[in-house]
Amino acid sequence: MKLQVVHRTHYDYAAAVAQNYNELRLQPISDSTQTCDSFILKIHPATRLSHFLDFYLNYVHYFEIPEPHKALTIESVSRVNTSSASLPDDADTAPMIRLPECLRMEKCYDFLQASTFVGLSPEVWKLALDASDGQKDIWRAAVAIRQFIHGNFKYTPKSTTVSTHMLEVLKLKCGVCQDFAHLMLGMCRAIRIPARYVSGYLYNGPLDKLIGAQASHAWCEIYVPDLGWRGLDPTNNRAADDHYVKVATGRDYADIVPVKGHYKGTPNRTMSVDVRVTTLQPS
């Protein structure tokens, strides 16, 4: 699927600010399931951009505006060609008894540990065991956890913040896509399934049935021996397919914040974010 993503973030400051430094994780990656054909990043006030790859091989652009300014606009335009490597829910993949292999893999180690927003308490372990209900297959166990979260937690906008820990989500029984991704990470890791956080976008198409579309979205990928990383979306209770555009991966949201930075000046500001995901293919 050929998709275009326009992501615009705008800040208005109550008074002029200066020395405004920002890191951006907005450029989609290219991997076995998608290719980023083009990426354009515009900053106003205009400034020089630099970039690097972070520890998890995400693209990071950064800039500084030293001069005083009262507004900042960051706009990215991406064109991405996606394909699907999703598995059916009842796929036979690898048995759970192979999970100890993952502990010895460098690419999996970080995604088996607790992290900033993900906890591995005994409560989470017990919940994951109950949700997976004795599944012997790694993929099917993860699907069971995804289904449990979708069936027992309510999608409620503005019920949490970007700094809400998954243990708080357990108490609230509600949240948004970021919270459900964190919860799934914790439950999978608690039973030793490697799981990583994915940020990106979701194309909804004309039917408008998916939650989190036309905005930044979050889901999970689990590692299955011999198959690699495969995506699961607990918010929409489905496997990630060619409707998903992957931008960054990490241990949790703290590793993939789309726009973060600091400046000198007034703390009073307003922020607006607008995301448009459209298809470039004729209908």
Description:
The chain is 20% helix and 40% strand. It has two domains: 2-82 and 257-279, Immunoglobulin-like; 96-255, Roll (C8orf32 fold), CATH 3.10.620.30. It is globular. The protein is an alpha+beta fold. The chain has six helices and 14 strands. A hairpin with a 5-residue loop joins strand 3 (50-53) and strand 4 (59-65). Strands 1, 2, 3, 4, 5, 13 and 14 form a seven-stranded antiparallel β-sheet that branches. Strands 11-10-9-8-12 form a five-stranded antiparallel β-sheet, covered by helices on one side. The relative contact order is 0.23.
Hey, roughly how much beta strand do the residues contain?
35-45%
Secondary structure tally: strands: 14
- Poorly predicted ranges (pLDDT <50, ≥5 residues)? none
CATH fold call of the largest domain: C8orf32 fold
Characterize the biggest β-sheet.
Answer: 7 strands, antiparallel
| Percent helix range | 10-25%
Termini gap:
12 Å
Structural class: alpha+beta
Average pLDDT level: 94
Number of helices: 6
Number of domains: 2
Overall form: globular
Rg over C-alpha atoms, rounded to the nearest angstrom: 19 Å
